[in-house]
Design a protein that fits this description.
three-stranded antiparallel β-sheet; five-stranded antiparallel β-sheet; Aminoglycoside 3'-phosphotransferase, Chain: A, domain 2; Phosphorylase Kinase, domain 1; 10 helices; 2 domains; alpha+beta
């Protein structure tokens, strides 16, 4: 007999229950062990445009898939992420795009877009195991990111210098909530760009690259990528990805979250700068352009968190020996 499971919070049925695409889940999982249960992953999103996440299990209780469901505050959030993930796969090619999950199903239910993705494990929350896991995960993801920069770096069209670089830098320089020295650096970067003292470049950018968006397929072990020659991790949350993105932001965000040392950060910045054909000292200008563009498209992201992000990313970059104030 087919069994449907309503999602509860201990106080009754979750109001999102009516938006779960039950029929789709049954169709997708019929040949994969059948639909056994649905449970919420984490708490409900706190931002108005957040995404609901649910773990899908088979009849034997094994995790099979994850359901992503948009919130009413942005009913097309999941659809946008899936669309941009597809664009990313095309831009990155088969090898680099292997880290992007292919949806098992996607559509609209009760006015909210959804997607069903293959189940992957989150990185460990255990502090001791995470220290071991982090060593090889960050090595693999940093290698992937270097290859992305090398493969996708491109010059912007001349008529895009103003809107894509000068405007974001000046917007950051005009944001009075941002530290004064960062504002001055942003305006100085804009002046230097206009004077031809550094070269604006585009690269493919994920734009939300941190621990929570890195997953492991089942049964991945340290060293698997060395044996198979393939990347043994998956990246999710592509809603902010850009084919014509900015260098350095993904690197700094990832390195900061993965606790990359100052000397290792120096090596990574030097490698990216070789692909960008720029002086390592120009890494700060690239980062500030990225942060300026991010600040122009915050949507539901709180301004105070953005200001803290700007301060944290810039401070972390300055740990590098090749970037000075």
């Amino acid at each position: 007999m087919t069994r449907l499971y309503a999602i509860g919070d201990g106080m009754g049925v979750d109001p999102i229950n009516n938006s779960i695409p039950w029929a789709v889940l049954h169709d997708v999982l019929r040949e994969k062990g059948g639909l056994g249960g649905v449970s919420r992953l984490g708490s409900a999103p706190t931002l108005a445009d957040g995404t609901h996440k649910f773990l899908i299990r088979d009849l034997r209780g094994r995790p099979l898939a994850v359901l992503l469901l948009s919130s009413p505050g942005n009913s097309f959030m999941v659809a946008r992420g899936i669309e941009r993930a597809g664009q990313a796969k095309m831009a990155l090619g088969p090898a680099l795009g292997r880290v992007i999950l292919t949806p098992l199903a996607a559509g609209v239910m009760d006015g909210l877009t959804f997607a069903v993705l293959p189940y992957c494990r989150r990185l460990s929350e255990n502090r001791l195991w995470w220290r071991v896991q982090r060593t090889w995960v960050r090595r693999d993801v940093l290698e992937w990111l270097r290859c992305v920069t090398e493969t996708t770096v491109a010059d912007p069209a001349p008529d895009r210098i103003e809107p894509d670089f000068l405007v974001p830098l000046r917007a950051l320089g005009a944001n009075l909530l941002v530290d004064a020295d960062i504002r001055e650096e942003a305006l100085r970067s804009a002046d230097r760009l206009e004077a031809g003292r550094w070269r604006a470049r585009h690269v493919f950018a994920h734009n939300d690259l941190w621990k929570e968006n890195i997953l492991l397929p089942p049964r991945v072990l340290p060293g698997d990528s060395e044996r198979t020659g393939q990347y043994r991790f998956a990246l999710i949350d592509w809603g902010s990805a850009a084919v014509r993105g900015y260098p350095m932001y993904d690197l700094v965000r990832l390195a900061r979250d993965m606790r990359v040392s100052g000397s290792a950060l120096t090596r990574e910045i030097a490698a990216h700068c070789r692909f960008l054909e720029c002086a390592p000292a120009d890494a700060l200008s690239h980062l500030l352009a990225a942060l300026g563009a991010l600040g122009m498209h915050l949507e539901q992201f709180p301004m105070e968190r953005y200001v803290a992000l700007v301060r944290g990313c810039r401070s972390f970059l300055l740990r590098s020996r090749v970037v000075s104030r």
